[in-house]
Each structure stands twice: as structure tokens, then as C-alpha cells.
């Protein structure tokens, strides 16, 4: 499984997220769960115990623009773990015509809607509404504005810190007798990307927006709520499943795992539910 892990500690992050999600949901076993944008289908493996039939969908071919890794990786993972009740279906969230109307009890998506351009999101919600049985629920996990705000911080705070580091390093190497100094290593912040700096803080695939500010505004919880409400869903619950800093690494996974009890306790309460880096909405299909 290690060779198809998308980034370090991915399995541990997603496992912790699903654990917190299930704590908030209290999900009974249902007939059919449909997952949209399943990625390598790891969440599908974890959640498939809650359905007799689990349909995991995604775009088929790898595409960095949409963060698509390719269905072949999902198939590889299912072959490795031997999940029997998971079916892989290649289709876009904007066209779920391969799924029958009113045939699904729960629709789940984790970090998918933000990759779909805003002008197509209503279409996705309408498709979800169509495939759900009456009273069926949709569980949507998306990044919150807090996560987007971190990008501003990284963008504006990192360059001055890097400048301080360079000055310290210059003087230290000139004056001192060591190659590195603990203080210098401490304040050193590595560039996360070797690409030239872009003016838009959020480059594609998070860049379907006219400006960074517009992207930030699109990630306010109210926007995600409205998307559900105007497409005939009744909001049932809102909570956060992630409070750590939006930096998925070997170091932050410890912080995330250590604080999961706190997250379970407070993640559904005001104002904490709006202050995590993720935002989760549970909504029910309302009658038309
Ligand atoms: C950040 S990944 C999340 C993957 C997985 N759900 C997880 O939580 O690890 C975003 C996923 O959204 C999928 N995606 C993007 N645009 C899509 C679309 N129009 N229809 C279906 N899936 C889409 C990508 O293929 C990718 O698998």
C-alpha cells in the first residue's frame, strides 16, 4: 500500500478523519453509499463496512488540474485489501448518469467540491439530489476558509522569515566557525515549491477564481451551506473533522492524532465547528 500512498502519512490522516467523522455521524448500516471523487479509494475501504453496496466514483485518468490520480490506483488498492462490496465507476460528479435515480441512501464526498469550478457545483448537487432516495443524506467534507487563510499567512510571512534566515546565515558563516547554527536551522523555512512564485496565492487546481480574495470568500461555511440549501437539501449537522494546521506531514500527524479526542468533543459545537481547517455538512434530501 505504501507505493500508492499519495503523500506522507495520508493513510493516518484519512483514518483519523474518518474516525472523527463517524463519531459525529453515528451512521447506521445502509443499503447503498455513493462516493464522489474517491481518489485512491482509501476512504471507501474504511466506510464500506457501513453499506451492503458501496459505489466509488471518480474521473478515470490522472490529471493534476483536478487532483485526479487515476482509477487504476483505486483498483490496485481494492485488489490489495480485497474489499468485496466496493464497485468502481468512472464518471464525473457533474454527470452521474451511470447511477440510477433514487437508488442511493448516502452520498459522500471528501475534499472534492472545491476542485469543481463554482459554476458547476449546482449541477453536482442536482445530480446528488437525483440519485438519492427520499430522505437520503449527503455528507460533504470541504476545506474551510481557515485553511485558505493559512495560505495568505504562508505567502506573506514566509518571505520575510526567509530573508531573516539568509541574513543570519550570512553573518554566521562570515563570523562564526560553524557551517550551521541551531538558531539558523530553527528559523529556516524551506520553500514548499520549486516553481516560480505566482501572483495568485492559490494556483490551479485551487484557482478557479478571479482572485485569492474571491477564493477565500467561497470557502466560508455559509457559502457551502447555501449551495446545499438552494439545491433542496435540509441541513442536519455541521462540524469540523480537522483542527490541525493545514500542513500534512510526518510531524503534524502526531498533533492531529493527539487532539482527536478534543476534536470529537468540541468539533460540533459553536464556534469551534466553524474554525477547523475542514468543514463537514450533513444534509437531507428535501421534497421538491
Ligand atoms: C483532493 S482529492 C480527494 C480524494 C479523496 N476523496 C480523499 O479524500 O482522499 C480530490 C478528488 O476529486 C476528484 N475530482 C475532481 N473533479 C472531479 C469531478 N468533476 N468529478 C468527480 N471527481 C472529481 C479528483 O479526481 C480527486 O480524486
Total number of domains:
2
CATH class of the largest domain: Alpha Beta
Using only CA atoms, what is the Rg?
Answer: 21 Å
* CATH third-tier fold name of the largest domain: Rossmann fold
Q: Sheet with the most strands?
A: 7 strands, mixed
Q: Strand content of the residues, in percent?
A: 15-25%
Structural class determined from secondary elements: alpha/beta
Residue windows where pLDDT falls under 50 for at least 5 positions: 181-199
Count of β-strands? 7
Report the helical percentage: 25-40%
What is the helix tally? 10
- Principal-axes shape call: globular
Distinct small-molecule ligands in the complex: S-adenosylmethionine
Order of helices and strands: HEHEHEEHEHHHHEHHE
> What is the assigned CATH homologous superfamily of the largest domain?
Vaccinia Virus protein VP39
CATH architecture of the largest domain: 3-Layer(aba) Sandwich
Strand order of the largest sheet: 3-2-1-4-5-7-6
Query: What's the average pLDDT?
Result: 86
Give the CA-CA distance, first to last residue.
Answer: 44 Å
Explained architecture:
With 288 residues, the protein is an alpha/beta fold. It has helices at residues 10-25, 42-47, 71-81, 118-131, 145-175, 182-187, 212-218, 221-229, 252-258, 260-266; strands at 30-36, 51-58, 86-90, 104-110, 132-143, 233-239, 278-285. The chain folds into 2 domains: 2-144 and 219-285, 3-Layer(aba) Sandwich (Rossmann fold); 148-211, no CATH class. The protein contains 10 helices and 7 strands. Strands 3-2-1-4-5-7-6 form a 7-stranded mixed β-sheet, with helices on both faces. The longest helix is centred in the middle third of the chain and has 31 residues, at 145-175. The radius of gyration is 21 Å and the shape is globular. The relative contact order is 0.15. Residues 14, 36-39, 43, 58-59, 66-68, 92-94, 110-112, 115-116 line the site of S-adenosylmethionine. GO terms for molecular function: S-adenosylmethionine-dependent methyltransferase activity. This is Methyltransferase type 11 domain-containing protein. It holds the Pfam family Methyltransf_11.
Amino acid at each position: 500500500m505504501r507505493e500508492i500512498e499519495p503523500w506522507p502519512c495520508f493513510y493516518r490522516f484519512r483514518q483519523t478523519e474518518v474516525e472523527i467523522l463517524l463519531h459525529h455521524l453515528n451512521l447506521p448500516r445502509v443499503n447503498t453509499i455513493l462516493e464522489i471523487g474517491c481518489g485512491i479509494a482509501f476512504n471507501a475501504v474504511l466506510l464500506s463496512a457501513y453499506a451492503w453496496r458501496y459505489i466509488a466514483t471518480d474521473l478515470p485518468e490522472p490529471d493534476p488540474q483536478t487532483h485526479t490520480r487515476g482509477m487504476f490506483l483505486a483498483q490496485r488498492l481494492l485488489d490489495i485489501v480485497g474489499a468485496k462490496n466496493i464497485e468502481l465507476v468512472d464518471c464525473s460528479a457533474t454527470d452521474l448518469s451511470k447511477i440510477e435515480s433514487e437508488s442511493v441512501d448516502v452520498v459522500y464526498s471528501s475534499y472534492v467540491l472545491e476542485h469543481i469550478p463554482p459554476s458547476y457545483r449546482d449541477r453536482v448537487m442536482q445530480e446528488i439530489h437525483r440519485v438519492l432516495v427520499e430522505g437520503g443524506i449527503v455528507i460533504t467534507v470541504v476545506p474551510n476558509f481557515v485553511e485558505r487563510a493559512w495560505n495568505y499567512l504562508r505567502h506573506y510571512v514566509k518571505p520575510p522569515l526567509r530573508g531573516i534566515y539568509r541574513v543570519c546565515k550570512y553573518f554566521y558563516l562570515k563570523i562564526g566557525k560553524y557551517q550551521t547554527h541551531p538558531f539558523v536551522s530553527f528559523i529556516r523555512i524551506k520553500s514548499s515549491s520549486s516553481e516560480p512564485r505566482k501572483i495568485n496565492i492559490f494556483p490551479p487546481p485551487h484557482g478557479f477564481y478571479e482572485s485569492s480574495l474571491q477564493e477565500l470568500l467561497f470557502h466560508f461555511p455559509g457559502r457551502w451551506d447555501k449551495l446545499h440549501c438552494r439545491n433542496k437539501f435540509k441541513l442536519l449537522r455541521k462540524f469540523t473533522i480537522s483542527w490541525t494546521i493545514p500542513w500534512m506531514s510526518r510531524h503534524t500527524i502526531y498533533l492531529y492524532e493527539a487532539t482527536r479526542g478534543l476534536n470529537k468533543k468540541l468539533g460540533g459545537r459553536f464556534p469551534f465547528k466553524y474554525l477547523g481547517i475542514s468543514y463537514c455538512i450533513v444534509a437531507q434530501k428535501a421534497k421538491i
